[in-house]
# Entry
Amino acid sequence: MGDGVVVTDDFVHSSTDFGPGPAGPAIDRYVGDSAVRTAWDKRYAEQERLWSGQPNGALVAEVAGLTPGRVLDVGCGEGADAVWLARRGWDVTALEVSGVALSRAARHARDAGVAVRWVHAELADAALPPASFDLVSAQYPALLRTADAAAERALLAAVAPGGVLLLVHHAGMDAHQPHDDGFDPADYVWPAMVAALLDDDWDVELDEQRPRTTPDSGAGAHHAEDLVLRARRLR
# Structure
């Protein structure tokens, strides 16, 4: 455990300092399990671009009616969602475990001329300011399960009163058998696990499976159905 890291052009802040800051390059400091970072860095390093470069369709659809405010992009990858949100007036904080991905994301934001705060950390270890985001967006996140549901609770804790949690995942993956490459769905957080933690402080606005707006390239393009959980924090 420790302070999360916000990366800006020239220096690193504790994640409790979330004042205005420009987009900038990722640097070599990380909060979380080093094995998780190494695994994702290796995956990103295997190809020049892992994802499609386009914002996720469920995010675009669900954010359309929201007033821009402060948003946390969980598992921002190469930054397509973060850049899209920033262009539409959102004050974006983007979190990612892979330094390789963050470097790409920061470059894309810089090329787009938008400001994003980059947090190089696992979600549960990031020490994000509680109840501070009007939108917490987690699009197909690879969040590891723990006995204390740390990742699930961190998602909920980040949402401000009146704010929205938007969690989207590939339908059916939670029921897959363990893969030969070591991927076991039982190791990860799925929307139903987060939904199970919602109490009277939350209003579930949407919890459904629906056809996915599928990109024509990038890892994950073969998935055709989404699970979409949208919940608003009442207090």
